[in-house]
Amino acid sequence: MTDSSAGSGGGGGGSSGRPSRGSGSFTVHLAEELEVYFNEVAHGRPVGFVASAKWKPPTDIFETDDALVVCMDIAGMRSEDFSVQLADGILTIGGERKVRRDGKPHYHAMEVQVGPFERRFRLPVRVDPESIRANYEHGFLEVRLTKVPVRSSGTQSVKVE
Description:
By secondary structure, the chain is mainly beta. 8% of the residues lie in helices and 30% in strands. It has 1 helix and 8 strands; from the N terminus they run βαβββββββ. The strands form 2 sheets. The chain has a 4-stranded antiparallel β-sheet, with no helix packed on it. It is elongated. The model is unreliable at 4-28 and 45-52 (pLDDT under 50).
């Protein structure tokens, strides 16, 4: 399963000193990361403040015996602020986290990202589209989809007509 905005991912361990992410990485495409970084530097914003139109909340995706689970870390929202859609094997989660402020504050640090966000994931297993359920609690959005059982790969016969 990959974030569809990701290209080939981080692939390979290389000599960068960072662990291998392999193909299928969930990271944002490198060109997009660089664009955000240079926009931040060029406009004098603190590094870490995302100047792009959409940011990407951190997300864990894992399988259980019978389900595929997507868990997004996104505090400060309400359940009705999210959009969750499944179409053609791609799960799209979006919304907008609003700025929390009274008056015009003088920031000393700005690390909490705000504004519109969207994540798109190609699902790695077949799921029942009717089974999709989403729950937002304690700052985490959990999307759960029931996996479609894999058919046995035993011998199949067909009558030739």
